[in-house]
Task: inverse folding
């Protein structure tokens, strides 16, 4: 962490922007969950963010999460896994995380459910949607969402809490907002369906450069790193 970064002040600024975006979308700031994306941050920096009032902490890497968990970095806030999750590492974070945001395949859901069942718990997850249909990205294609939710409802050991997406990044603001809008419409469509163990509680989309727009278009969970911790 750079010495000139004031994490508490940064979070206060982010909260103001969240409030403004929430009001523009006819909601209140309390409707929005702020996840501090803490990739490559120290345990001390993460504890500062928790003390300053973030709602949760999100980690991208399994090994890094384990190391910082052992340092008590996350005490006082829910822990989310927000990065690409490889099948051979999935079991290591089941029960460690309050929420796994980036579950992008049926096989991964099954692995998580099997591990959670062996621990006697239910693991909360979000289904990652490849909203831009980008071949280099993981995630469920939009038109497969209903099918994956139906399958998820039959898997013991998991509870689906909503959807997550990382839309394509464009310099043009309107292009970004287009994908946020499409993702929100998908979220609403899935909210109208009724599956066991599935609730559309969270729509996680928006990062440091886009969280305000994402909120305006319906996101209620944002993953903010640079705007809190500064550049890595």
Result:
């Amino acid at each position: 962490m750079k010495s000139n970064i004031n994490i508490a002040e940064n979070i206060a600024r982010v909260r103001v922007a969240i409030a403004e975006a929430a009001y523009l979308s006819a909601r209140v700031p309390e409707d929005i969950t702020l996840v501090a994306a803490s990739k490559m941050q120290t345990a001390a920096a993460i504890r500062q963010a928790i003390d300053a009032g973030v709602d949760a902490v999100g980690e991208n890497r399994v090994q890094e999460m384990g190391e910082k968990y052992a340092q008590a970095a996350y005490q006082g806030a829910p822990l989310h896994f927000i990065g690409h999750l490889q099948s051979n590492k999935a079991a290591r974070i089941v029960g460690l995380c309050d929420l796994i945001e980036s579950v992008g395949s049926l096989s991964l859901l099954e692995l998580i459910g099997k591990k959670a069942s062996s621990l006697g718990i239910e693991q909360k997850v979000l289904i990652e949607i490849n909203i831009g249909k980008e071949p280099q990205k993981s995630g469920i294609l939009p038109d497969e969402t209903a099918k994956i939710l139906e399958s998820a409802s039959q898997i013991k050991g998991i509870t689906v809490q909503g959807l997550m997406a990382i839309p394509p990044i464009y310099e043009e603001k309107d292009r970004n907002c287009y994908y946020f809008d499409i993702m929100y419409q998908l979220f609403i469509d899935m909210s109208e369906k009724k599956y066991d163990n599935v609730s559309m509680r969270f729509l996680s989309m928006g990062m440091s450069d886009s969280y305000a727009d994402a909120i305006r278009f319906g996101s209620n969970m944002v993953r903010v790193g640079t705007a809190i911790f500064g550049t890595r």
The chain has a mean pLDDT of 94. The two ends are 8 Å apart (CA to CA). Strands lie at 33-37, 56-59, 79-81, 99-103, 123-129, 158-165, 198-204, 221-224.
